[in-house]
Amino acid sequence: MLRKIILTTAAAALVVAPVAAQAAPERVSSPVAETEHASEGLIFALGTAAFALLVLLLADSSDEPTSP
């Protein structure tokens, strides 16, 4: 019974979503300076590089078993 309710709700959401998106008022973007866009990209790139470095440092590449 719960499965049918979930499936029905999901199907209704898929039907209603495009109609709701079409009825929403048009959003107008505000002007943003070029430097803000550049700094956001730089911050994202540095964060991604830091995450990759952290994963590489924490990865245990030892093939030896931990038990004797």
Architecture blueprint of SSEs:
Elements: H1 2-23, H2 34-58
Characterization of this structure:
The protein is mostly helical. The protein is built from two helices and no strands. The N and C termini lie far apart (52 Å). The mean pLDDT is 74.
Short précis:
This protein has 2 helices and no strands. The chain is an all-alpha fold and 68 residues long. The mean pLDDT is 74.
Summary tags:
68 residues; mainly alpha; 0% strand
Strand residue content: under 5%
The largest β sheet comes out as: none
Q: Spans with pLDDT under 50 lasting ≥5 residues?
A: none
- The residue-averaged pLDDT reads 74
Q: What structural class do you assign from the helix and strand content?
A: mainly alpha
Radius of gyration: 24 Å
Q: Percent range for helical residues?
A: 55-70%
Q: How far is the N terminus from the C terminus?
A: 52 Å
- Along the chain, the helix and strand elements come as HH
Number of helices: 2
* Number of E-type strands: 0
The 3D shape can be described as: flat
